C-alpha cells in the first residue's frame, strides 16, 4: 500500500512549511553537491537539499543510494521530514566531504556526485565526520536522539551492512540516545525503509 496516501492534506501542509523553513537555513540555501543557490529538491535518505540538475544525477544513482523528492511538490512521510530536519546539507557534507581537498573543482558534477556517494571517496578514513558548527551539532543531536528513540535504526542501508552489524549498531545507538549530549555526530543515516 502507498503510505503517502495516508498523509492528510493538513499534515502535508505542515510538512511543506517545515521544508520551506529548512530551505531558508543558511546551511541549506545552496545545493549540497554543486553549490547552486536555491535548491528545491532533496534526497530523503541522505538528508540533503539539491538543485534540479543534481536531482537528475541522484535519480540515476538508483534508489539504493539516493531517493529524490521535490521539497515543494511531493508528499513526504513524517519520518522523511524528521530525518532531513536532523541532517541537512552541512551535517551530511561533514561526513561525505570530510576528506575533500579545499577548493576542489566540481567541474564534471556527475563524476563528482558518483565519487561522493557511490565510491564514498571523501568519507572520513576513521569513520568520524568533521564536526559541524556548534549550533548545528546541538540542534541535530537532540532531533537525532528523538529519531533513535522512536525507532530510527542508526545505520545506512546497503549490502555492506550484515544483519549482525546492524544489530550491534542499533544497540549502540539506543545506548547513545540515553545520553544527554552526543560528542560527535554520526555519519548520515536514512529513515527506516517503509514497505
Automatic annotation (TrEMBL):
> One MF term from GO for this chain?
GTPase activator activity
Pfam families the UniProt entry points to: ArfGap
* Stretch list, region Disordered: 124-195
Q: Where is the Arf-GAP domain?
A: 16-130
Q: Which CDD domains match?
A: ArfGap
Q: Which InterPro entries match?
A: ARF_GAP_AGD5/15, ARFGAP/RecO, ArfGAP_dom, ArfGAP_dom_sf
Record PANTHER family = ADP-RIBOSYLATION FACTOR GTPASE-ACTIVATING PROTEIN AGD5
Give the protein name, as stated in the record.
Answer: Arf-GAP domain-containing protein
Amino acid at each position: 500500500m502507498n503510505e503517502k496516501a495516508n498523509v492528510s492534506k493538513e499534515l502535508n501542509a505542515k510538512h511543506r512549511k517545515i521544508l520551506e523553513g529548512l530551505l531558508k537555513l543558511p546551511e541549506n540555501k545552496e545545493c549540497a553537491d554543486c553549490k547552486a543557490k536555491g535548491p528545491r529538491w532533496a534526497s530523503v535518505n541522505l538528508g540533503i537539499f539539491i538543485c534540479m540538475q543534481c536531482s537528475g544525477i541522484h535519480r540515476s544513482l538508483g534508489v539504493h543510494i539516493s531517493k529524490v523528492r521535490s521539497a515543494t511538490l511531493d508528499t513526504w512521510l513524517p519520518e522523511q521530514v524528521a530525518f532531513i530536519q536532523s541532517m541537512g546539507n552541512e551535517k551530511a557534507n561533514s561526513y561525505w566531504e570530510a576528506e575533500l581537498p579545499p577548493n576542489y573543482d566540481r567541474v564534471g558534477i556527475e563524476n563528482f556526485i558518483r565519487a561522493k556517494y557511490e565510491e564514498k571517496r571523501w568519507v572520513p578514513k576513521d569513520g568520524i565526520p568533521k564536526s559541524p558548527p556548534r549550533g548545528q551539532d546541538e540542534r541535530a543531536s537532540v532531533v537525532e536522539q528523538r529519531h533513535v528513540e522512536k525507532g530510527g535504526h542508526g545505520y545506512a542501508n546497503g549490502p555492506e551492512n550484515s544483519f549482525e552489524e546492524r544489530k550491534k549498531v542499533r544497540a549502540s545507538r539506543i545506548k547513545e540516545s540515553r545520553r544527554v549530549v552526543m560528542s560527535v555526530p554520526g555519519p548520515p543515516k536514512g529513515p527506516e525503509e517503509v514497505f
